[in-house]
Amino acid sequence: MKFRIKLILLIILKVHLWFIGITTAFCIFLNFMNPLFTTMSVYRMISSDYSLNKHKYIKLNDIPKSTQKMLLVMEDHKFYSHFGFDFEAMKRAYKRNNRYGKIKSGGSTITQQVARSLFLTTHRNFFRKYCEAWISLEMEIFLSKHRIMELYFNYVEWGKGIFGIETASQFYYGKSVKKISVEQSKILITILANPIRYNPKNYYKSRTMQMRYNHINRWM
C-alpha cells in the first residue's frame, strides 16, 4: 500500500515537472518569437464548424492608447500592479457564482486570459484553472507586462475563427485597429466577454454587453 502511494506521488511529481518544464520553455520562447498557432486556435479548428481567419499581428505600440486603457478598465485595471492574480476579483467572482448557482465569471486577469488562450481551452473546470495558475505565474516571471499585453491583443479570441484585435478590426471594419474610431474600439472591447455569440452587429441585444459598453462610456 505504501509503495503504491509513493509510486502515485512520484508520477504526480514527474508530471508536474514535465508540465512546468515545457510551459516555462515556451514562456521564455515567447520573448523572442510569436507563435504561429495556439492551443485555443487548434481546438477551435478541430471542434468548430467554422474556419480560422488569417491571423494578423500588430505591435502593442501601434494599438491606440485609448484602446489599451479600455481593455484595462474592462478586464483588469490592476494589471500593471499585480503579479498575475487579482484575489479581490476572484472573491467577487466566487460570490457572484454562488448567487447564480453556476459559473458566471472567473475573476481572471489579463495574464490568466493569455495563459488560457495560448496553452489551454475555454472549458471551465478546476483542472484548467490549476494549469492556468501555474502558467500565469511563469508568464509573470519570464515575460514583461508589455509583452503579456501585446500577446493578449494578438491571440485572444475575438469572434468565430478570429484571434487578435487586428484580425478582428480587419474582419469587422475593413481596416487596421490603428485607423478605427473610438466608438468602434469600444465595441471591440465590449464583445470580448462573449465573442462567439456576440459581434459588432448584435452586441446591443445582450444586457451584459450593454452593461460593458456603458461602463466604458462612463469611464470615457
Describe the structure.
- It is a single chain.
- With 220 residues, the chain is mostly helical.
- The protein is built from ten helices and two strands.
- It has helices at residues 2-29, 39-47, 65-75, 87-100, 110-119, 126-142, 145-155, 165-173, 182-190, 207-219, and strands spanning 157-159, 162-163.
- The protein has a two-stranded antiparallel sheet.
- Helix 1 (2-29) crosses helix 6 (126-142).
- The N and C termini lie far apart (63 Å).
Characterize this entry briefly:
The protein has helices at residues 2-29, 39-47, 65-75, 87-100, 110-119, 126-142, 145-155, 165-173, 182-190, 207-219, and strands at 157-159, 162-163. The chain is an all-alpha fold and 220 residues long.
What distinguishing features does this structure have?
single chain; about 220 residues; mainly alpha; two-stranded antiparallel ribbon; 2 strands; about 0% strand; globular
**Shape type:** globular
Low-pLDDT parts are none
SSE succession: HHHHHHHEEHHH
Structural class: mainly alpha
Kindly report the average pLDDT value: 89
The main sheet comes to: 2 strands, antiparallel
Number of strands: 2
Strand content: under 5%
Biggest sheet strand line-up: 1-2
Q: What's the alpha carbon Rg, rounded to whole Å?
A: 18 Å
